[in-house]
Amino acid sequence: TMAARLSFIIWVLFVTDTVWTRSVRQVYEVHDPEDWSVHHDFDCPTECFCPPSFPTALYCENRGLKEIPAIPSRIWYLYLENNLIETIPEKPFENATQLRWINLNKNKITNYGIEKGALSQLKKLLFLFLEDNELEEVPSPLPRSLEQLQLARNKVSRIPQGTFSNLENLTLLDLQHNKLVDNAFQRDTFKGLKNLMQLNMAKNALRNMPPRLPANTMQLFLDNNSIEGIPENYFNVIPKVAFLRLNHNKLSDAGLPASGFDVSSILDLQLSYNQLTKVPRINAHLQHLHLDHNKIQSVNVSVICPASFTLPAEQDSFSYGPRLSYLRLDGNEIKAPIPMDLMTCFRLLQAVII
Question: What totals of helices (H) and strands (E) does the chain contain, helices first?
Fold first, then answer.
């Protein structure tokens, strides 16, 4: 029904944005001016811009900076992206005890350039952006307060043991487009990430699913790797996973567990551009299924639709039919004509692309 579809859309928006809104609510929470120390300190580094209407922000982006200037104590939001910065020393942050947000994207920062303690001393930091730098491993130590860590498009191939052990508040970890391989992970690599909800490791060089993921993971993105299979009972460890993306891998029928993706928590499953020859087993709760550009030649109607999907004309088929509302099968090898029972099944779905 339309109401059910609208309910699903609202749920998707909620889950997708929850790691953002949780943190934004805290970052933008209005505090007493006493906390900002505005009346004590309104100095502004000459290399940067300090908007009078936004006294807790410091804009130093796109200025060709090679060093981080001294950060005034009132600053909550620090923008240093698109510069030539190579190091993160402790000294510029000596007085910056209120920092919640640091954007250092598109610089030249290396692990050797990060002074130990420079980041961990920032006890109120929630967001750390270090995308498009020269990092070869996940930086450590990091502040316990951190909620989002963005490390996309670096050269990360190592995760030192214990890196995440104290990051119990982290909800989002973005490691996409790095150089991670299977031996970068130990069984306890993700230990400590008790509240992690979104994990993005797309565009790496993984051949296997990463081990022992945090139990609260809801969004797992592993597109554009070389993953060939999924171990039996793999999803038992992540019972809340709702969004699973495995597009552009090397998954085959033989590489899937016997139960396939029969996991009640999964709402959106993306398996485009793999090597599947049949539709894998799915759960009745699944709503979106992407199977385009595989090697599927025929579709078992009982996998997509319930056994008793043919209904009297006067009944509302959407009330009794499959929960699956979106299905992509284009780019496969399905030959015409499509059997009548399968066409009847497809008519029960809200959107089918074949």
Answer: 5, 13
Measure the CA–CA gap between 296 and 292, rounded to whole angstroms.
9
Structural domain range at position 123 = 44-134
The answer to whether position 100 is within a domain reads yes
Contact 269, 261 (CB under 8 A): yes
Answer yes or no: is 49 within a domain.
yes
| Cα 32-35-37 angle, rounded to 5 deg | 115
Query: Dihedrals φ, ψ of 326, to 5°?
Result: -140, 125
Residue of 151, 145, 128, 266 whose CA lies nearest to 195: 145
* Higher local confidence (pLDDT), 284 or 216: 216
Counted domains in the chain: 1
pTM as predicted: 0.87
Please state whether the peptide bond connecting residue 141 to the residue before it is cis, i.e. omega within 30 degrees of 0.
Answer: yes
Q: Which two tokens stand for residue 51?
A: 């908007």
Closest CA to 176 of 146, 197, 206, 218: 206
- Phi (first) and psi of residue 236, to 5 degrees: -60, -30
195, two tokens: 């509240």
**pLDDT value, residue 177:** 98
CATH code for position 118: 3.80.10.10
What is the C-alpha to C-alpha distance for residues 159 and 173, in angstroms, rounded to an integer?
13
Rounded CA separation 96/76 (Å): 8
Side-chain half-sphere CA neighbours of 247 within 13 A: 16
User: For the range 8-17, what are the long-range contacts, defined as Cβ-Cβ under 8 Å and sequence gap of 24 or more?
Assistant: 8/267, 8/287, 8/325, 11/267, 12/267, 12/268, 15/218, 15/219, 15/242, 15/243, 16/219, 16/243
b or e along 120-152 (b: 16 or more beta carbons within 10 Å of the residue's beta carbon)? bbbeebbbbbbbbbebebbbbbbbebbbbbbbb
Q: With a cut of 60, say whether residue 84 has pLDDT above it.
A: yes
